[in-house]
Amino acid sequence: MKRFAILLAPLALASAAFAQATLPEVADTDGNGTWSLAELQAVWTDLTEDGFKGIDANADGAVDQTELQAALDNGVITAPEASSGG
Q1: 1-14: buried (b, 16+ CB within 10 Å) or exposed (e) per residue?
Q2: pLDDT surpasses 80 at 69
Q3: Are 66 and 23 a contacting pair, CB within 8 Å?
Q4: Quick one: how far is CA 60 from the chain centroid?
Q5: Span 40-56, mean pLDDT?
Q6: For the chain, how big is the Rg over CA atoms in Å?
């Protein structure tokens, strides 16, 4: 039974990794390492101030990579569709 569990552990970890949404490219126009509402609105054009506050978990007025990843993983926001190029 232990062998079976050891064999399944990597599969379980890989599945968890695939469940995490990939962060889209979001420009950090002021270069401060976090995103403002305006920076996120360049990708999520319908994002409101209230929506931004819902993403900004520590309420510091900026969204960092961890907060944005959590918002994507929890379905607070969805990754934008990739353009088809034509």
Answers
A1: eeeeeeeeeeeeee
A2: yes
A3: no
A4: 18
A5: 97
A6: 17
Query: CA nearest 74: which of 20, 13, 14, 17?
Result: 20
End-to-end CA distance of the chain: 53
Q: Which two tokens stand for residue 64?
A: 């960092």
| pLDDT band at residue 86 under the 50/70/90 scheme | low
- pTM of the full structure: 0.71
- Residue 35, CA distances (Å) to 10, 25, 49, 72 in order: 34, 11, 13, 15
Query: Contact 81/44 with Cβ under 8 angstroms?
Result: no
Quote the pLDDT of residue 33.
Answer: 96
Contacts 24+ apart (CB under 8 A), 83-86: none
